[in-house]
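tool_call: predict_structure(chain=1)
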Amino acid sequence: MTVVLFTCAGQRVDIVTAFARAGATTVAVDVNPLAPALYHADRHAIVPRVDEPGYAEVLAELVREHDVRLIVPLTDLDQHLLASRSHEIAPAVPLVPDLEVVEATTDKFRAHTLFEERGIDTPPTWLPDALPAKLDYPVLVKARRGFGSRHIFRAEGPAELEFFLAHTPVDSMVQAVCHGAEFSIDVFCDLEGRCLNAIPRTMIESKGGESIKGMTVKDWDLIEHGRVVAEALPLKGPATIQCFREADGSHRVTDVNARFGGAFPLPHAAGSGYPELALALARGERPEPRLGEFQEGILMTRFFSHLTLVPGDDGSLVPFAEELPEPIAET
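tool_result:
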């Protein structure tokens, strides 16, 4: 069985268990011993913070100890390290794009610049010290680095823009507001940057920047747009492309997250087979693209669950009484 190491595992029980069902042996690591995904993996370990010395060395040791063949980061936090120091964790393959793309997609202004360079339609975006003399309002003040829709402010006029720029606590940029319908496209690419599938979904409701309700749509314009964007960058492994369909039919890309998205359960339920594709790449295979091979009209609505733990004999935490979600009522 292929051994997969999940870094910054956090709450991503859904991804870890999906890989296990696909036939992987799972190893999850996190800095926090209360990260629930740790206890849903076959093996787990507590590691240093990503920014602490020794983090890469600990991963390399885990790769050797468990014969890891694939590393899947579950946040953006260590993608730069995995892309820049991949030789240290060989023979495990980190499922991340090349360093240039990682650096761009974790900085939203650099991402905007990269989109323009690669011919990808994207909203007009400026740094605060390079604003044009005339702006069409409203505009957004957005953190250059961040997640979960933190530090995003809508300015309806010059006074509000000046206020938000003066008071935001993080390095920010200014972006034109998109007025069309918002979609996310969950893509998966091979290690050559070929897009193997692209699954669009609607954004029915989000909370803290993460989709909690949505539906898959077999919209061929969006599928093709996802493929074009993914291959133009290029991406490797999973990513979520966020875009708006404007009144003129264009699709403006606002963000690309080069990892499995928060709404992973939706494309997975629709038949994406992304864990199976990832395992095939780890085995050195070259799967053929399967664009459009998924079920449309699949709806997702998310809810909280929990895991209870107790100290074991050696002081480590072990599951105490895991309660599965309540069964769905018969109708």
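agent: The two ends are 40 Å apart (CA to CA). Proceeding to next step.
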